[in-house]
Write a structure and sequence with these properties.
mainly alpha; about 60% helix; about 80 residues
Amino acid sequence: MKRTQIYLDEEIYKYLKEESKKTGKSISELIREKLKKELNQNKENLLKAIKEVAGIWSYQTEDVEEFVRSIRRGKRIDSF
């Protein structure tokens, strides 16, 4: 575990202090738990999104790069 220092605004500090009293956990422990929960949620959302789009191009026989080039043709803006 690494030691670090953070600055909290008064509202967050008061909330954490109250939670600490209610739960018997240190403020540091509460912060670690909340960060882990947030990181895990973001990881789960990313994995869900990846699973939703996995194989989305599998039905296409055309090369992806060529397809993108073909739909972009004629849409470039000339610089002046």
